[in-house]
Amino acid sequence: MRIALVSQAQPAEAFEILRDLGCRVVEHSPTDDPVEIARGGDAVLVECGDDVDPMRALLFRLRRAGAASVLLAVHSAQLLRVDPGWPFDDLTLQPYVPPELYLRLRVLEWRRREAPNDLRIDIGEMSVDLGARAVDLAGERVPLSPQEFALLAYLTRFRGRAVTREVLLRDVWGLRSVETRTVDVHIRKLRQKLGGAATIDTVRGVGYRLDAMNKDLDR
After folding, report:
1. Answer CATH for 120-210 from 3.30.70.141, 1.20.210.10, 1.10.10.10, 1.10.10.60
2. Checking DSSP bridges between strand 2-7 and strand 43-49, what pairing results, if any?
3. Which pLDDT score, from 0 to 100, does residue 178 have?
4. Taking 80 as the threshold, does the pLDDT of residue 113 lie above it?
5. H-run or E-run covering 55
6. Tell me: the pLDDT tens digits for 168-184?
């Protein structure tokens, strides 16, 4: 597995761990070309250490550059400084637990391979392109934030099934928290932007469910 490792520290804390796990690692500075970083690995590991703020802008540059799989690594003292709306796909803690780090990177790789660029799911007038990370409504592009798209894509993959807020926080935001208001806020924004194109039902006492009635359900 190829990993593009971005860190403010040289050498990066994860470098030797990843090498020992059999990964091919290319180290980058946060000031390197984000396109070069995005194309340099099957996944990008952004190592923040004790200071998250300088890496925030890099996350947005990486997403615009086409990075499909971004794992954010922070020390526990910095967790509250991480905004769930930032464009990363999963989060892990430093100091690392090597098996957990490797598993999270492999999960990102698996998700990327499960969503090829031509994978589209149509739900009524709405079309969700999991590869291009884009949503069209009656032929018009719907402007979604990275986290709004990630939430919609997750519900789309599990459409017809009720998903708890805790599971959404864990799998979409990479957070282990009992604070679920973040999910509710993003659901409300999705409903406003999508209108009646897709029904996101509230399952009382559980979480949310995307209406499964669409022509691609049995593919």
Report:
1. 1.10.10.10
2. parallel
3. 59
4. no
5. helix 53-64
6. 888 787 766 656 788 89
Topology (CATH) of 2-114? Rossmann fold (3.40.50)
Contacts of 217 (CB under 8 A, 6+ apart): 159, 160
- The least confident of 118-122, 143-147, 149-153, 203-207 is 118-122
Q: Residue 179: what residue type?
A: E
Strands 2-7, 24-28: pairing kind: parallel
**Which tokens belong to 83?**
């905004």
pLDDT surpasses 70 at 215:
no
Q: What's 198's DSSP letter? A: S
Question: How far is 44 from 155, CA to CA, in rounded Å?
Answer: 24
